[in-house]
């Protein structure tokens, strides 16, 4: 009798409330945070806000972008690593935070290789070799020739030890068999003024932040570090046209804390790839000099593993010492 009453009660509950929802079906039912390891205005911040705006349309929930700069991205990484693994806190990570930090720090409060679940890659941003508008160098060959001329002393700036701009310079000097002095800066704020003022010979910038100065005639782009020329700068040769195989840049993607349910990772990945397939979004990213490269979470994880192997050799050549 009791069993029949219990069964009847269960049927009534299901009739009124429906079957319990799975993690995937109920997610998300609250705001999502995307934490960016840099201050506002940079390529990572721009991409996070583009993705966040589209996520709001897909998930019908607010998406808050939080900037937590400092310590080469480890402050933002720590915030995400410590967050509940429920899919509501995400990291906009890149080459520097997810790979280079492995070689920069002997010890972190989190295990960089296991603290995050890759959600998906957003884009690859090839580095762009820029010089002052009135620079005598108009091509990669001009720079290589000047670097080999002992009567000239070239110096390139970078955003800091281990930054993509630093690694691009190391690759350039190594593959080009030249020597160029490295001047590390604390960030990028003073680099472009020093190039335009003639205090630096050149710099490996990213297209999104360099395009305005190039279009206004304050900087000159002489090579891009992708396999082929890019639509946004069709007249700028790929550096690989002069130095075969030269390719380096910064990729960006989304990460969740380790332990986030796989079904939520899958939903976030599906939404991210939906965003990247939207023509308006894709065209916006391409117009800023990015290559749009959607992946599955597993493809992204495999890619990161390969990047770690490839960049380990480059950081060794750069003399990067773990702190």
Please give a structural write-up.
The structure is a single chain. With 323 residues, the chain is α/β, with parallel strands linked by helices. Helices cover 43% and strands 19% of the residues. It has helices at residues 2-17, 23-26, 43-59, 74-81, 95-104, 140-148, 164-176, 191-196, 207-215, 262-277, 279-287, 297-317; strands at residues 32-36, 63-67, 89-94, 116-126, 128-132, 155-158, 181-184, 202-205, 219-224, 249-257, 291-292. It has a six-stranded mixed β-sheet with strand order 2-1-3-10-4-11, sandwiched between helices. A five-stranded mixed β-sheet has the order 7-6-8-5-9. It is globular and about 65 Å long. The model is unreliable at 13-23 (pLDDT under 50).
Q: Main beta sheet, described?
A: 6 strands, mixed
Q: How many DSSP H or I helices?
A: 12
- State which percent range the strand residues make up: 15-25%
- Mind telling me the C-alpha Rg? 23 Å
Query: How do the strands of the widest beta sheet line up side by side?
Result: 2-1-3-10-4-11
Net shape? globular
Class from secondary-structure proportions? alpha/beta
Please count the beta strands (DSSP E, at least 2 residues each): 11
The termini sit apart by 71 Å
Helix and strand sequence: HHEHEHEHEEHEHEHEHEEHHEH
Helix content: 40-55%
Overall pLDDT, averaged?
90
Low-confidence stretches: 13-23
